[in-house]
């Protein structure tokens, strides 16, 4: 549970931190802000991938646990 909340907050904070650079790039045509955005979006992508892997591992764990409980009850 802790992993889920921690990663969610990390992802949320990362996305929220990009607002000023989005405004600078799209509203003021600030190219340096665009570069920062591209780098930050890669960080978002990497973090999202970590979350996806964690979700898959957790699903597998619960499926294995369920199978073990069913086998034990037979």
Computed CA radius of gyration, to the nearest angstrom:
19 Å
Could you say which overall geometry the principal axes of the C-alpha atoms support?
rod-shaped
How many strand elements? 0
Give the number of helices.
3
Task: Outline the structure in words.
This protein is mainly α. It contains three helices and no strands. The chain has helices at residues 2-16, 19-28, 31-73. It is rod-shaped and about 65 Å long.
List its traits:
74 residues, mainly alpha, 3 helices
Q: Could you outline the blueprint of secondary structure elements for this entry?
A:
Elements: H1 2-16, H2 19-28, H3 31-73
Helix pairs in contact: 1-3, 2-3
Short description:
Helices cover 92% and strands 0% of the residues.
């Amino acid at each position: 549970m802790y992993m889920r909340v921690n990663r969610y907050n990390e992802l949320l904070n990362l996305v929220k931190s990009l607002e000023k650079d989005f405004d600078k790039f799209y509203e003021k045509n600030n190219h340096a802000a665009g570069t920062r955005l591209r780098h930050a979006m890669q960080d978002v992508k990497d973090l999202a991938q970590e979350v996806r892997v964690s979700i898959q591992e957790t699903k597998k764990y619960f499926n294995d646990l369920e199978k073990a409980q069913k086998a034990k009850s037979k």
